[in-house]
């Protein structure tokens, strides 16, 4: 799935680009209205994430031009403009969804999946590693045929590890993508969450899938991939 982000605020744009890439999407970033419009019209994107207040051309005009050009890819407004009339205007111009800043990254991903299901764009529904299986649509996890109950944060953490399996994920990246927070070395929230997750998906089974790489982070390894 290819996503175009049109966002002029540097920190937000970089955060979205990293998050979408880590979630497994092919992602491009435009930092102003004219560039975003050009990329949307010339590229073959499955989804556009669009801010309203953009330099050169605002998001309303970008969306209006996209629709007048005959492009029907889903467009999600991600903006700080939270008035009812703003949301109405965006939807009437042809937006498919409207999310207010500040936002939770997990909610953004859920909305992207919902838009993907409504469009023709394919979306990964099942993630696997060995005998561990995650159903993203039904939000269910099984290992060795047994259902495992996870909290929303545990589910999000396991989803990230599964999507990036075989790669060592730094604690800072995990904290940013799962908790929408900057990593603080004095905070052990990641370690505690991983320990609780392993107690559910690893300790009762063999082999163990989630490994701590000292001084670097965590990795989920698929035993079948190493055979």
From TrEMBL:
Single biological process term from Gene Ontology: regulation of DNA-templated transcription
Domain of life, source organism: Bacteria
The OmpR/PhoB-type domain, residue ranges: 124-222
4-aspartylphosphate PTM positions: 51
Gene3D superfamilies: 3.40.50.2300, 6.10.250.690, Winged helix-like DNA-binding domain superfamily/Winged helix DNA-binding domain
GO MF term list: phosphorelay response regulator activity; transcription cis-regulatory region binding
UniProt entry tagged with the keyword Signal: no
DNA-binding region positions on the chain: 124-222
Assigned keywords, A-Z: DNA-binding, Phosphoprotein, Transcription, Transcription regulation, Two-component regulatory system
CDD domains: REC_OmpR_CusR-like, trans_reg_C
SMART domains xrefs: REC, Trans_reg_C
Key word DNA-binding present: yes
Pfam families reported for this sequence: Response_reg (PF00072), Trans_reg_C (PF00486)
Residue ranges of domain Response regulatory in the record: 2-116
One Gene Ontology CC term in the entry: cytosol
The protein's name: Response regulator
């Amino acid at each position: 799935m290819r996503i175009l982000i049109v966002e002029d605020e540097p920190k937000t744009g970089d955060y979205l680009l990293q998050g979408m890439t880590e979630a497994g999407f092919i992602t491009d970033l435009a930092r102003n209205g004219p560039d975003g419009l050009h990329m949307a019209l010339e590229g073959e994107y499955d989804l556009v994430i669009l801010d309203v207040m953009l330099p050169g051309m605002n998001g309303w005009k970008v969306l209006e031009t996209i629709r007048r050009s005959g492009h029907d890819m889903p467009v999600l407004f991600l903006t700080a403009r939270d008035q009812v009339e703003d949301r109405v205007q965006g939807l009437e111009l042809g937006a498919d969804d409207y999310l207010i800043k500040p936002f939770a990254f997990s909610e953004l991903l859920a909305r992207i999946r919902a838009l993907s299901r409504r469009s023709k764009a394919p979306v990964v529904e099942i993630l696997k590693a060995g005998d561990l299986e995650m159903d993203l649509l039904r939000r269910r996890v099984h290992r060795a045929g047994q259902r495992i109950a996870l909290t929303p944060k545990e589910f999000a953490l396991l989803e990230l590890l599964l999507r990036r399996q075989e790669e060592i994920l730094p604690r800072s990246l995990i904290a940013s993508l799962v908790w929408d927070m900057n990593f603080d070395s004095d905070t052990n929230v990641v370690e505690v969450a991983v320990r609780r997750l392993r107690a559910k998906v690893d300790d009762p089974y063999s082999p163990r899938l989630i490994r701590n790489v000292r001084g670097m982070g965590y990795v989920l390894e698929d035993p079948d991939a190493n055979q």
